[in-house]
Structure formats: C-alpha cells, structure tokens
Amino acid sequence: MSIEIRIAEDLLKIGAVFLRPDEPFTWASGIKSPVYCDNRLTLSAPSVRIDVEEGLADLVNENYPDAEILMGTSTAGIAHAAITAHLLGLPMGYVRGGAKDHGRQNRIEGKLTPGQKTVVVEDLISTGGSVIETVEALREAGADVLGVVSIFTYGMKKGIERLAEAKVKNISLTNFDAVVRRAAETGYIRERDVERLLRFRDNPSDESWIGAGK
C-alpha cells in the first residue's frame, strides 16, 4: 500500500476527514463543502500519529535532504514539526500568525540563523494562503526556505497556482483524490459520489455538485 493511500485510510478511520456530499459543511468563507478536515485528531491516535510523523520525516529526507531546521505553521503545524524534527534530530521552531504584542514581539519562535535551510511543516493545504504567509515571514527573516511538507492537500487549482506564483514547493503525504477514492473503495461514500467530489475540488465556488447524487 502506498503512503498516500495508507494516510488517506488513516484519516478516514479516525474521522480526521469527514465526507458529506449530501449534507455539505459551510466554510468560514461561505463556500459549501462536501469535506471537512481536522488533522489535529491524528495527534490523539498513536498508531496514526506514527504513520504521519514517520511519513513527514521521510518526505523531508527524500525531498529536502539538506534541511537544517523545521518550522511549523501556527498552530496546527507546531506539534507535527516538533515530532518530525525529533525523529530527524533537527532543531525546530514555529511561525506565529502575527507578531506578539509583548516581550520581544517575536513572530518566529525558536532560533533561526540567516541562510539556514528551512522546511515548513503544515497540516493542510487548501488555497495556500496561510502557508505562503509563513514562508514569506521566514524569507524576510533571512531563512533559505527549501519548501513545505504537509499531511493533506486538496489539490485545488487556486492553491496550486498561488504556491507556484510564490515559488513555494509543497509535498503532501496524501491528497483529496486519494481520500475520495479510498472512501469509495471502502464503502464510506457511493462510487457515483466520486465525480461530484472531484468537481468540487476543481471549482469550489461552483455548487452544481450539490444534490447531483440524489
């Protein structure tokens, strides 16, 4: 079993990914979505956590062998960055959503040396906005950002384009397509729902997939 299928199965098994094509969730943006992802649940499931953190460590070794430090996104990426850095024997830190308003007013926590080869650890990539902000903060601080590793990506066109424009490389353990297909194979969703879900992935603002399976 490939790593992307194993992680997809893990996320479905613990309910970190919910698929509800007939009862959509509403995102903060107002977009209707057939999927909700909460990768924080992986931290509470030891066997899944091992798969995820060892998988992230392998991604770093394979894709960024020169990495000198890992930086987690706030807040979801912090724990994963810490555990993965421990497995790799690397230092870690994290980037706040904004600078502190007290003390030294740091935005980057942990010691970061200018020129240090850095890999960002993120839990989820959708439109790419938050991880790009993290990368930009690190670049402004002088880091040599090699790229990003993440647990899950939606593979949305907007996210792919934004990452490319910002010159940010991302490698994910699994993706929306793998989760959807594994869900169909295991009976979590109906086979006819696969096309609907992939239509959402291609264009989240087009709600024509809603009700199409009834």
Description:
- This protein is α/β, with parallel strands linked by helices and 214 residues long.
- It has 7 helices and 10 strands.
- It has helices spanning 3-13, 46-63, 76-88, 129-140, 157-165, 176-185, 193-202; strands at residues 17-19, 25-26, 32-33, 35-37, 69-73, 92-95, 108-109, 117-125, 144-153, 170-175.
- The strands form 3 sheets. Strands 7-6-5-8-9-10 form a 6-stranded mixed sheet, with helices on both faces.
Attribute tags:
214 residues, alpha/beta, globular
Placed side by side, the strands forming the largest sheet appear as: 7-6-5-8-9-10
- Characterize the overall form: globular
Give the biggest beta sheet.
6 strands, mixed
How many individual helices?
A: 7
Annotation, overall tally of beta strands: 10
Helical residue percent?
Answer: 25-40%
What percentage of the residues does DSSP assign to strands (E)? 15-25%
**Please, what is the average pLDDT?**
93
Which class do the helix and strand fractions yield?
alpha/beta
Oligomer category: single chain
**What are the low-pLDDT stretches, counting only 5+ consecutive residues below 50?**
100-104
For the terminal residues, how far apart are their CA atoms? 33 Å
Rg over C-alpha atoms, rounded to the nearest angstrom = 18 Å
Following the backbone from N to C, one meets helices and strands in this order, namely: HEEEEHEHEEEHEHEHH
